[in-house]
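Morning!

This is the sequence you dropped in the shared folder:
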Amino acid sequence: MNTAAINESKNLFDDVITVIGKTNDGNDLSPRDLHLTECAINGFLTEEGIVQFYSLYHQVTNGTYDKLKNYLFGVEHITKDHECYVYFKGKHIDHFTFHGNYEGEKKAAIKAAKICTLLESKGIEVSSITYCWRIEEYLTVEEIAAIDIAVEEPTNGAYAD
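The structure's back. Tokens below.
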């Protein structure tokens, strides 16, 4: 979206209210998009932030917004809701909060994706039980250690910053 299209908008505040109204008072937004919307209403957006907000605005008003596509730290299939519950492909697997330790939370998200993908590859249904409570029944110590090592290595590809 270009700057001219943004300037055509009648009013940023009206557009924020539209987004909030069409997303169940913001409850249907991903945490990242809710934060973006909060920054918009409080006047804290940069020029890039305004562009991102209007991309969100158009998705919401066109009915194409899907919060499940807003992956946590870009880690495919991992999402997190406003109460810090973590999901893999929309299925609840965990609950974590890192209180501003973004690197730690990103590593946890990458590890969750790797574990869940491995579980799926073995034909095991991914859930909070298979992921958290009974993982040692499904994955070997060596498999878990290999994932831990991979998560600690510098990130590349899909998970790069």
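Headline: The radius of gyration is 18 Å.

More detail when I'm at my desk.
O.
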